[in-house]
Amino acid sequence: MTFDDFDFDYELLDGLHAMGFEHPTPIQAQAIPVVLSHKDLIACAQTGTGKTAAYLLPILNKIISAHSDQRHLNTLILSPTRELAIQIDQQIEGLGYFTGISSIAIYGGGDGAAWSQQRKALAEGSEIIIATPGRLIALLQMGEINFKNLQHLVLDEADRMLDMGFYDDIIRIIGYLPEKRQTLLFSATMPPKIRTLANNILHKPEQINIAVAQPAEGILQQIYFVYDEQKIGLLKHILREGNFTSIIIFASTKENVKKLNDELIRNRLNTKAFHSDLPQKEREEILREFKNKTLPILIGTDILARGIDVEGISLVINFNVPHDPEDYIHRIGRTARADTTGTAITFVNDKELRKLKAIEQMIGKEIPRVSLPTALGAAPEFKHTTLSSKPKRKKKRPFRRNKPSTTSDNKSKS
Ligand code: AMP
């Protein structure tokens, strides 16, 4: 499946292209048609699954299709935290870059200047507001927002909003909105209180459940930040110095698997490569050797990550960060099976930081960083890039509509 299957406007497809999105994630594949068909939705999906774009893309497309010459407030997105509100705002900026659609993030905690910037940007108008509930209530009480034309209400990370005590605020906010609207509720978990909220504010919702497996408790996860040239030295160091008996090394491509295997064999390490070019019989033989522990090190692509169930694997090394966060979980799940323990080490270079961040968002925590052995030279000092970093922009094209200057002022100053 590709994004072309949704018949999105070309301006939106350009934004997707600029963001580097090629294929919809499972939550996007399932949620986009529901949102496009104007139905209410309750979706169980965690951060890292692509849930933000799952609701933003169809909403942006609907705003474009409405062909309105005037800027009406079309969508309200409620977020539990300022950080998430900013991230959503930045995704709108990236995905909607060629559409001219504008958004404002409204959240508390800023100084007086930020507050007046937010009010000024509101007065200018924009199609999408992303707000934390507390700050929005304050503005609503001042009568500063007109929801007359509102079409969509999105509750993002609804379970977190309820955990933070926002239930009453949410209900109060909904009291200001038109009854005829589309409501989309996204939540990482579905405790009974979310069901209650959904029953109260959604109308005959479609339901989507994207279950994400979490890594087993017994896996010790570690990250090394490295330059690309340091990866092979680090790998050899860990294989020689570490006390591991049964090891899987994951590389991203067959070519990398073969190259790594050759290099390790040259260094007198007992390894074999496992990839789709090998005949089935040979693959089975290699797996047999690995299972009965006559072969201590196996190097493979992600075809090794799913399905093979070998007991006693003590170490998984990700020579390359997997593209898909779920693959990370599958890869490291080869160790610490059946309540045992194991270690999962991931080498991360500067180009892989974004993938690391997506993994960490999915598993909901930062993976401990380990210092590079001094013999390998200095480790790079990456700034830990955030997921919300902006896409590389293509040549500027004229907008269909102009963004209000205050919106960008608001973003840069708040
Ligand atoms: P989210 O779950 O919305 O927080 O998204 C997690 C990360 O995945 C964000 O960095 C998004 O930019 C990225 N992302 C979302 N959808 C896609 C896609 N279809 N292809 C590649 N990356 C994506």
Give the distinct bound molecules.
adenosine monophosphate
Order of helices and strands: HHEHEHEHEHEHHEHEEHEHEHEEHEHH
- Judging by the overall fold, what is the CATH architecture of the largest domain? 3-Layer(aba) Sandwich
Rg, Cα atoms, Å: 24 Å
N- to C-terminal separation?
39 Å
Number of strands: 13
- Tally of separate helices: 15
Q: Beta-sheet strand percentage?
A: 5-15%
For this structure, what is the CATH homologous superfamily of the largest domain? Answer: P-loop containing nucleotide triphosphate hydrolases
Q: How do the strands line up in the largest sheet?
A: 3-4-2-5-6-1-7
Can you walk through the features of this model?
The protein is of the alpha/beta class. The chain has two domains: 208 residues, Rossmann fold; 158 residues, Rossmann fold, CATH 3.40.50. The chain has 15 helices and 13 strands. Helix 12 links the parallel strand 10 and strand 11. Helix 3 crosses helix 4. 43% of the residues are buried. The C terminus is likely disordered. Bound molecules: adenosine monophosphate. The site of adenosine monophosphate has 15 residues, from helix 3 and helix 14.
Task: Give the structure's gist in a few sentences.
This protein is an alpha/beta fold and 414 residues long. It has helices spanning 10-19, 26-36, 51-65, 82-95, 112-124, 133-141, 158-163, 167-175, 192-201, 231-241, 254-266, 280-291, 325-332, 353-363, 405-413; strands spanning 41-44, 75-78, 103-106, 128-131, 152-155, 182-187, 206-209, 219-225, 247-250, 271-274, 297-300, 315-318, 342-348. The chain is elongated and about 75 Å long.
